[in-house]
Amino acid sequence: MGVHVIRKGALDYLTADTLEGTAHCFSTRYGGVSKGILASLNLGVHRGDEPDNVLENYRILGSTVGFRPEDTVFTRQIHSDLIDRVGREDCGRGLFRPVDHPCDGLVTNEPNVVLTVFSADCTPVLLYDPVVGAIGAVHAGWRGTAAQIAGKAARRMCEEFGCQPEHIRAAIGPCISQCCFETDADVPEAMRAAFGDEANAAIRPVGQKYYVNLKELNALALRRAGVNQIDVAAECTACDPDRFWSHRRVGGERGSLAAMIMLKGETV
């Protein structure tokens, strides 16, 4: 098991062995048509980019990964633990029409529905049950991590689709790693409140500051939900701002990365 870099010409993205059988990716900055601070594969529609550029970026990525831009379903993220069940009727939500209510996670058991979550340091998590045929996608900032949204998404798949936790596979994508995620006491306090003493292994105090491992905490939330097949990307978005957008490094002057997953079905 593992996470792998895929390069096709200028395009660069990551895939995970645990998600084999789906069309999926964790995007990078490379391979699109956007310009300036949004160069080049910006996938965010609210970053000030030209809409035609964003759409073309989805076409470029989709033509390689195996999805149509028209089949995407976006989140409107608020650092919550809200999870939507979506289906074919929701396709185009975000890219072609507004997202009418907030959520930070999506689940479906319908093919040709491209679950899409966004990040620029926060933790993207993708889920797949190959037995039932169901998927999930989660955006976990530190608040969502403390709310254990990744584990809640797995439980929601069990409730909605009859998944068994031991059949669910997960992949945690590139995000800010412990090496760069320096915080005040509020973040470790929230993690200890959520995870108890188990959180301490993911918290490293340095003077008056703390370095927190969001990847490990999201993996812990998944394991608590019974998910044990987990691939974790090694990449740190803040360490490599040329390849990934990092809010910690550049603030709002950036594009958006996306984590995307789709159950394969007959061409619509």
Highlighted features:
six-stranded mixed sheet, single chain, alpha+beta, CNF1/YfiH-like putative cysteine hydrolases, globular
Explain briefly what this protein structure is.
The chain has 268 residues and is of the alpha+beta class.
Structural overview:
The structure is a single chain. The protein is of the alpha+beta class. It has a single domain (3-263), classed as CNF1/YfiH-like putative cysteine hydrolases. It is 22% helix and 27% strand. The protein contains six helices and 15 strands. It has helices at 51-65, 142-146, 149-161, 186-195, 214-224, 247-250; strands spanning 3-8, 11-16, 22-27, 72-74, 83-85, 105-108, 114-119, 123-129, 134-140, 169-172, 182-183, 203-206, 209-212, 229-232, 257-263. The strands form three sheets. The chain has a six-stranded mixed sheet. A hairpin with a 2-residue loop joins strand 1 (3-8) and strand 2 (11-16). Helix 3 packs parallel to helix 5. It is globular and about 50 Å long. It starts with a strand and ends in a 5-residue tail after the last strand. The model has no long low-confidence stretch (mean pLDDT 97).
